[in-house]
Design brief:
Chain lengths: 186, 136
C-alpha cells in the first residue's frame, strides 16, 4: 500500500479525486474551486495601488489563500516526503520530439533544467519561460475569469457554456505555442 | 482556525496534483502534442465526477455542513473569456503549469516556480490596471 502511494498515481485515481474536490469545497463552505483568484487577492492585499479592480474585501476570500497555501504544502508532502521517480514517465514520442525540436538532453525533475534554471534569466530563455510565461498565466487567467480549476473543472462540472469557451481558448493557445511558436523559437 | 479545513483540502489537492505529475512541464507538453492519454484522463474524469457530484447536490438540495444553502454562481461571458483564455493557453504551454501547479511546484522545491508566481502576480496586477481599457 505504502509503495503504491509512492508511485505516480494513474489518471483514473487522480482525476476522480480532483473531481471530488468540487463537492468537498461546496459542502464544507459553499466555495467554488478556483485557484487563479488567489493571485488577485494577493495583489489586492499587497499592491492595490488605487486600482478599482483591486479594491474589495480580500480578507473575505482568505479561505482561497489558505487553500493555495495548502497546495504548496501538498507539493512538499507529495514530492519530497512521499517520494518521486527521477524522471517523469512521459511517452517515448514526447521525449524524441523534445530532443529534436527543443534540443533538450536532461529529462530529470518536474521541469527541464535547460529551460527553467534560474541562471537562464541571463539570456532570453529565462525571460521567455519564467517571466513571460508566468505573466501570461496571471494576465490571461484573470482576463478569462478563471484557470484550469475554475473553468475546466468547476465550470464544466456545472455545465457553464462560458467555461467551455474558455477551455477551448486555453487549448487553442497551448496548441499555438507548442506547434507554431516553439518551432519558430528553437 | 475556521480556515483550517481549507488548508487541509488544499493540501490534499496539492498532493493529488503532485502525485499525478500534472504539475510537470513534461506532462503538459505530452498533452499538447497528443502523445498520451494521461492529462486528458485526469481532466476528463475530474469533470465527470464533479458533474455527477454537483447534480447530486442540486437534486437533493444539499446544504453545507454548517447548514447554509449551496449556491453556485454562473460564469458570465465577456470577450475576455476567449481572449484571456488564449493568452493563458500560451502561458500554460510555456510554463507547463496553471496557477495551482505553480504553487505545488514551489512547495516541491522548484526555484523557478517562485519567479513564475511573481511574474503571474505581475500579470494579474497589469490586467487589473488595464481592465477598463481592454475589450470586454
Amino acid at each position: 500500500m505504502l509503495e503504491l502511494l509512492q508511485q505516480p498515481w494513474p489518471w483514473y485515481v487522480a482525476g476522480p479525486l480532483i473531481g471530488l474536490t468540487v463537492p468537498a469545497l461546496l459542502l464544507v463552505g459553499n466555495k467554488a474551486l478556483g485557484i487563479s483568484s488567489s493571485l488577485r487577492h494577493i495583489c489586492a492585499a499587497c499592491v492595490p495601488a488605487g486600482i478599482p479592480f483591486l479594491q474589495y474585501n480580500w480578507r473575505a476570500e482568505s479561505w482561497n489563500l489558505m487553500f493555495v497555501l495548502g497546495i504548496a504544502l501538498g507539493g512538499f508532502i507529495g514530492y519530497r516526503l512521499m517520494g518521486h521517480p527521477d524522471v517523469v514517465g512521459i511517452s517515448a514520442e514526447t521525449v524524441r520530439d523534445l530532443k529534436a525540436q527543443l534540443h533538450l538532453t536532461d529529462f530529470s525533475g518536474l521541469l527541464p533544467r535547460e529551460l527553467f534554471a534560474l541562471d537562464n534569466l541571463a539570456n532570453w530563455k529565462g525571460w521567455f519561460f519564467l517571466v513571460l510565461g508566468g505573466f501570461l498565466v496571471g494576465f490571461g487567467t484573470r482576463y478569462a475569469g478563471g484557470c484550469t480549476s475554475g473553468h475546466a473543472i468547476s465550470g464544466l462540472s456545472n455545465l457553464q457554456w462560458v467555461s467551455l469557451v474558455a477551455v477551448i481558448g486555453f487549448f487553442a493557445g497551448g496548441l499555438l505555442m507548442t506547434w507554431l511558436i516553439y518551432p519558430l523559437l528553437f | 482556525m475556521k480556515y483550517l479545513k481549507y488548508l487541509v483540502l488544499g493540501t490534499l489537492f496539492g498532493i493529488i496534483l503532485t502525485k499525478s505529475e500534472v504539475i510537470s512541464w513534461f506532462r503538459i507538453q505530452e498533452m499538447f502534442r497528443f502523445q498520451a492519454f494521461h492529462m486528458y484522463g485526469v481532466i476528463g474524469s475530474a469533470v465527470v465526477v464533479g458533474l455527477i457530484s454537483i447534480q447530486l447536490i442540486k437534486r437533493n438540495h444539499l446544504k453545507t455542513l454548517g447548514g447554509k444553502p449551496i449556491v453556485i454562481a454562473d460564469k458570465k461571458f465577456s470577450h475576455g473569456v476567449w481572449i484571456g483564455g488564449l493568452l493563458f493557453g500560451l502561458g500554460w504551454a510555456i510554463t507547463g503549469a496553471c496557477p495551482g501547479p505553480l504553487f505545488a511546484q514551489l512547495g516541491s522545491g522548484v526555484p523557478a516556480a517562485a519567479v513564475m508566481i511573481l511574474a503571474a502576480l505581475a500579470g494579474t496586477w497589469t490586467y487589473s490596471a488595464l481592465r477598463e481599457k481592454l475589450p470586454n
